[in-house]
Amino acid sequence: MIETRGLVKRYGSKTALDQIDLDVPDGAVYGLVGPNGAGKTTLLGLLAGLRKPTEGTIVVGADPSKVGVLPDTPNFDPWLTAREVVELARSLTTSSGASDRVDEVIEEAGLSHDADRQVGGFSRGMLQRLGVATTVVGDPELLMLDEPSSALDPMGRREVLDLVSRLRGQATVLFSSHILGDVQEVSDTVGILNGGQLLYQGPIGDLLVGHATPVYTLRVRTDPNPVAEALRGELWVTSVKVSPPDTLRVSVTGVERAEQAFAAFLADSGVPLISLAPEAVDLEQVFLELTK
Amino acid sequence: MTLWRLEWHRLIRTKRWLALFGVYVFFGFLGPLTARYMNEILDSFGGNLEGAVIQIPDPIPVDGLTQYSANVSQLGVLIAVIVAATAVTIDAIPEMGVFIRTRVERIANALSPRVVISAAAIVAAFATGALIAWYETAALIGPLPAGDVLAGIAYGAVYLVFVVALVAAVAGKARTVLATVLASVVVLLLFPLAGVVEEVGGWLPSHLVGALAGIPAGIPASDYLGSAVVTLITAGLLLWLAARWAAAREV
């Protein structure tokens, strides 16, 4: 759906994006992750045609009228009602004047009770939800959402994430976020952007398996420090951290090797064991690994 | 809801129409009144200033429109610039600019209603004020030929369309409403200065400002035709630049 090659954006001497080769597959929910200043908004601006690249090419496989764009802090003329804003968005993106779709997205955004209120009095969270409504009302084939849940309370955030999840199969979604849990929850494909460079992109499952250092949590019914010393002597162990009174976090070189070696180590050393379990790898861990 | 209706709402709900019509209608009433009663007004302040005596000739009908024209050429145009700037500065709030820009095929599609509705409202306010001034002049001082006044209004309308086009072009470069207003006012102030050069003055847009009073005073309407043509061509060029600059801007 989206393909960029050698995309560069410079502001004077500052390089905001450097040689970005982005591939967003058709129908994907693509999460673009990165810290503040990584270049996420710049990249979305380029893809939306709001900015011009310094170098490189962009191919977007959807008609511009079928692309919905949501900025990170949506804002509207304060003297319009929420319904008028959505009606305007609808009229600009489709020739169909069906008002039931307008009502539908207003309800999905949780704004039915405020539909006829002027948006000047809306909170930031309400504006964000209204922005989502204006983005989906034109039944887009491609949605680009910049930090869509950043301004929302937990309930609003949940609604937006559910909305993004529901769009799977109906539209391609590219959304940026620095909330890694959100990306891990709803994305099937992820891109990690840092300092204007795309450090990784691909299926999120591959990323979690392939990039995080596997870690096991070992609990023993004895002093953990001698156990830690013994583990540090093993070739398949990369580091050991002791968390008193009984826990050790053991980083290993690989899952397969550790699965075999751990059992042998415990049997040979005769350590009284409480539990041994692999730590769940999450996106945050991988992100920190890649960006450190 | 369409972009045209959006502009209509902007004019009505934000009370911009009230500011526009308020100023032009006020001067429409005030112009002939001050022309008719200037002697009495001066007398009420004493009439005799440290021995100096101010003598003003008896008013003639064209004085009513001269007063109106002088008043609206300053404050009226300033209000017109502000009203136009608030409409055509699409990216004044960048997120609102993004909303519009990502939903129109060409930025000109978004600019057109803003320019047309603003210009129509400004011209309507100017014409309303001028018609009030004309009627009141007839009632207080004496009648003026309808054809001359209507020709003057038409030339004034051309000038105001040019003003809106200028503001739209400036907005293509300036990011804020304030910057657009200030830059537009500076450019508009340059025209009368350039008009001091006799060979040039008769061709400038600012020459049209005097048509409302000039034609009833005896200046042939055809004397303003050259300026009107130049003004319309310039306005068209400015609108083309406005669309081009707005399209080139990064948000």
Keywords:
heterodimer; A: 292 residues; alpha/beta; Rossmann fold; Alpha-Beta Plaits; 2 domains; six-stranded mixed sheet; four-stranded antiparallel sheet; 10 helices; 36% helix; elongated; B: 251 residues; mainly alpha; two-stranded antiparallel ribbon
What's this entry about, in short?
The complex is a heterodimer of chains A (292) and B (251). With 292 residues, chain A is an alpha/beta fold.
Please describe what this structure looks like:
The complex is a heterodimer of chains A (292) and B (251). With 292 residues, chain A is of the alpha/beta class. Helices cover 36% and strands 28% of the residues of chain A. Chain A folds into 2 domains: 2-209, Rossmann fold; 212-291, 2-Layer Sandwich (Alpha-Beta Plaits). Chain A has helices spanning 40-47, 82-93, 99-108, 124-136, 154-166, 180-186, 204-211, 224-232, 255-269, 283-291, and strands at residues 2-11, 14-20, 23-24, 29-33, 55-60, 67-70, 142-146, 172-177, 189-194, 197-203, 215-220, 237-243, 247-252, 273-278. In chain A, strand 9 (189-194) and strand 10 form a beta hairpin. Chain A starts with a strand and ends with a helix. The mean pLDDT of chain A is 87. Chain B has 251 residues and is an all-alpha fold. Chain B has one domain (3-248). Chain B is 74% helix and 2% strand. Chain B has helices spanning 3-13, 16-44, 62-88, 94-101, 107-140, 146-171, 177-194, 198-201, 211-214, 225-248; strands at 48-49, 52-53. Chain B has a two-stranded antiparallel ribbon. In chain B, strand 1 (48-49) and strand 2 (52-53) form a beta hairpin. Chain B starts with a helix and ends with a helix. In chain B, 48% of the residues are buried. The A-B interface holds A 45, 48-52, 64-65, 67-69, 71, 73-77, 79-80, 84, 87-89, 91-93, 134, 138 and B 1-3, 6, 9-10, 13-14, 93-96, 98-99, 101-105, 250-251.
